[in-house]
Amino acid sequence: MVTDNFCELFEEIYQHPAQAMSAAPGRVNLIGEFTDYNNGFVLPCALEFYTRILYRKRNDNKVVVHSLHYPGECDEFALDTEITRGDSQWGNYIRAVAYVFKRQGHQLSGVDLLIDSNVPQGSGLSSSAALEVAVGGVFNQACQLNLSNETIALLGQEAENDFMDCQCGIMDQLVSANGKKAHALLIDCQSLATEAIGIPDDLSIVIVNSNYPRKLVDSEYNQRRIDCEQAANKMSVASLRDADIDMLDNARSSMTENEYKRAHHVITENSRVLNATQALKNNDMQMLRALMTASHLSLRDDFEVTIPETDGLVEICQTALGNAGAVRMTGGGFGGAIVCLCRHDDIDKIKAAVSAHYFSRFNIQASLYVGKAGNGLQVTEF
Ligand code: GLA
């Protein structure tokens, strides 16, 4: 849902109408966690939750940004001097994207921006990637750069890596740019080839956010990435994509316990993604269930990115659904959300179980969303 008077608000703030809107979605990852930066496979889908940016080109080199979520807080920076971090955390994402576009040699012009978003924040549904891709869509259209959605996604990832200091992979930005309604996207993160996989009509995607406040996420995230790269080095492969379990076991004695465990997760997760893609095509709930359960356990025991709240939610939902659903944590871990695949009639079982057991065990309220797979980046001129 876009805020009703979004366009009027733009006009009120800037005293002229917007010329276009760029919209990019958040995502939920069905399976394939922490495999993207190891050149592996992922199977996310874009969600029908969007970050929308109204914009109008200015006649100077200034970028002025307002957000409906932070009324009274405005960020402003110049494009013709070095772009550095500002005081506004959300404003820094816009700076980050402008910074990498400029670094790439693109000629940018000033813009007035107004942001609105219904992507749940801090829940691991990629609100930051949605913002980066939407901003990329603004500059691409406003400055007639003719970049592909894939390039916009890659620049969004660079913005995150080089300006925001999170060494994330390409999954979130690429599915936000190229997601397809009613489909998940199998991404080969080595070649960036994608295949849209239809989500069966009778399958629901239920997302339950633990609402646990995520802390130290970036430092833990970056450390996992270093462990994976060390493990790949010790097996003499360019990335964990090129390793298998035999190679891992042969190199075990040269590895730290953590390097071994992280690599074990990634290698096994890659094959789970390919099997889950087949299971989704076949609408095979039993297979999806087995693979998503194994993925969660591997994230808990080998990659060590789950917390009691997300483990607890998975357990609560697995018990409620029994054989009728597949459940795992999703996203960057250390809190955030879990994802359940189930038949429509079983959504109420999840709702009932979460409200009966989660708060009483963890003293936090969970939030539940029924997700719909939506389209990626869209820019509409008025
Ligand atoms: C975050 C990152 C992604 C990916 C996931 C884990 O969402 O932004 O690149 O690594 O974590 O799968």
How does this model look, in words?
This protein has eleven helices and twelve strands. With 382 residues, it is α+β, with helices and mostly antiparallel strands. The chain has two domains: 6-198, 2-Layer Sandwich (Ribosomal Protein S5, domain 2), CATH 3.30.230.10; 203-371, 2-Layer Sandwich (Alpha-Beta Plaits). The two termini are 19 Å apart. Alpha-D-galactopyranose binds at residues 29, 33-34, 36-37, 168-169, 171-172, 331-332.
Chain-wise SSE layout:
Blueprint: H1 6-14, E1 20-31, E2 41-57, E3 62-67, E4 74-78, H2 89-103, E5 111-117, H3 127-142, H4 149-162, H5 171-178, E6 183-188, E7 194-198, E8 203-209, H6 217-234, H7 245-251, H8 257-281, H9 285-301, H10 308-321, E9 325-330, E10 337-343, H11 347-362, E11 367-371, E12 378-381
Parallel strand pairs: 3-5
Antiparallel strand pairs: 1-2, 1-12, 2-5, 2-6, 3-4, 6-7, 8-10, 8-11, 9-10
Helix pairs in contact: 2-3, 2-4, 3-4, 3-5, 4-5, 6-8, 8-9, 10-11
The protein binds alpha-D-galactopyranose.
In short:
The protein has 382 residues and is an alpha+beta fold. It has eleven helices and twelve strands.
Give the averaged pLDDT, no decimals. 96
Model regions low in confidence, pLDDT < 50 over at least 5 residues: none
The CATH topology annotation of the largest domain reads as: Ribosomal Protein S5, domain 2
Question: What is the CATH top level name of the largest domain?
Answer: Alpha Beta
The proportion of residues forming helix, as a percent range, comes to 40-55%
Kindly provide the radius of gyration, computed on alpha-carbon positions and rounded to a whole number of angstroms: 21 Å
Strand content: 15-25%
Alpha carbon gap, first and last residue: 19 Å
Which architecture of the largest domain would the CATH scheme give at its second level? 2-Layer Sandwich
Biggest sheet character: 8 strands, mixed
Query: What small molecules does the structure contain?
Result: alpha-D-galactopyranose
Q: Structural class given helices, strands, pairing? A: alpha+beta
Q: How many alpha or pi helices?
A: 11
Order of helices and strands: HEEEEHEHHHEEEHHHHHEEHEE
- Count structural domains: 2
Shape: globular
Number of strands: 12
